[in-house]
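Thread amino acids onto this structure.
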């Protein structure tokens, strides 16, 4: 039973399922747990492909959009040009809107907040400069876009980031206002029969029980440092290491990475599994993996690291990055420098001592992973405080 059924919250995001990334999963869990335990909550986002049907247990309202160049399947939305969306949005009566993007979805949330005189919460999730530079290949355009992004956050009533490192990134962009930290959670679902789930993964990818499995889950884009992972894997193999590397995801760099794997001599140990939308199947991958290698220096508070931790799978991360915040080497993660040689060394350390690796994985589950249900309790409590503060003003 909902604790506050009379309240309505709107979550706004520029891309949603069937695209998959950490921010999309975050928004889905916000809406899911809000609707289940607290209040009405809907998601407003860009249109989906014609063959996709929304099946979420909450309302998803969509508006016209156009593809983002060089970044399929992401899209730019144009809500004000979609009369059907505008009519549907007019019938919603949110008490608070939360923007998970500073672009057109965020601007739409800002428009609604001003027109209804309700608070706007804006979350800063990503290193947008890197994304914009990759699309435009222009530092001038990227700098101009960052100024517009900072302007958006300056107009929000409350600004949230997912960890301290992300907050520092937003400060570096030029934002000087107040910030709050609201961490991410995980929706990891433990299979009823873990042993059977692991056997299924072994059978699908032709792993033996003795194989050490390195797992990567994420967009196959250069920003996430997959080239360094492949180079480190090649070094480890050249040094006599025996392992399997499972790459899960899709992205503009996938074809290049597949060619690179062949050139590096990894054909017999690497599998590109493609995008996996089924959360139960993805959970079985984490359970089977011995380490989760995620050398990204781009991500802020990656959900995949939390998902791995829930499965007692330790992560290999680059020290000093936002992704490695609150991680301690050889305690709840294996840390390395931003080089193939150092990453290879971390893989070697992880696979040299099985008992220690399992201990690090257990520590990761104790210190890194928090279930979304618990996180949303905190989120909703803060929403209530914000709405009360708005009424007093």
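Threaded sequence (393 positions):
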């Amino acid at each position: 039973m909902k604790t506050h059924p009379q309240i309505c919250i709107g979550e706004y995001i520029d891309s949603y399922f069937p695209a998959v990334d950490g921010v999309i999963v975050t928004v889905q869990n916000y809406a899911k747990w809000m609707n289940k335990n607290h209040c009405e909550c809907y998601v407003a986002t860009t249109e989906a492909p014609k063959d996709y049907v929304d099946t979420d247990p909450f309302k998803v309202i969509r508006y016209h959009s156009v593809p983002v160049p060089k970044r399929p399947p992401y899209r730019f939305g144009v809500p004000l040009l979609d009369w059907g969306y505008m009519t549907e949005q007019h019938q919603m009566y949110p008490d608070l809107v939360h923007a998970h993007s500073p672009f057109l979805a965020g601007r739409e949330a800002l428009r609604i907040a001003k027109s209804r005189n309700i608070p706007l919460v804006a979350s800063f999730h990503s290193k947008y400069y890197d994304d914009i530079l990759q699309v435009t290949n222009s530092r001038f355009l990227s700098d101009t876009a960052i100024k517009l992004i900072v302007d958006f956050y300056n107009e929000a009533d409350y600004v949230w980031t997912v960890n301290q490192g992300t907050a520092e990134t937003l400060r570096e962009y030029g934002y000087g206002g107040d910030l709050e930290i609201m961490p991410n959670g995980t929706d990891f679902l433990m299979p009823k029969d873990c042993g059977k789930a692991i056997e299924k993964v072994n059978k699908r990818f032709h792993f033996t029980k003795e194989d050490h499995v390195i797992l990567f889950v994420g967009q196959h884009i250069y920003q996430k440092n997959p080239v360094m992972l492949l180079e480190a894997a090649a070094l480890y193999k050249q040094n006599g290491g025996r392992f399997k590397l499972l790459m899960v995801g899709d992205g503009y760099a996938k074809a290049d990475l597949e060619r690179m794997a062949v050139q590096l001599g990894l054909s017999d140990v690497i599998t590109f599994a493609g995008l996996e939308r089924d959360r139960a199947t993805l959970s079985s991958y984490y359970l089977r993996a011995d380490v989760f290698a995620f050398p990204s220096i781009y991500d802020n508070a990656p959900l995949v690291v939390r998902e791995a931790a829930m499965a007692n799978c330790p992560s290999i991360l680059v020290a000093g990055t936002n992704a490695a915040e609150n991680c301690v080497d050889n305690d709840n993660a294996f840390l390395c420098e931003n080089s193939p040689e150092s990453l290879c060394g971390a893989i070697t350390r992880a696979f040299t001592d099985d008992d220690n690796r399992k201990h690090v994985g257990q520590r990761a589950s104790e210190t890194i992973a928090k279930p979304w249900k618990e996180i949303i309790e905190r989120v909703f409590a803060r929403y209530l405080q914000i709405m009360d503060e708005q009424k007093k003003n």
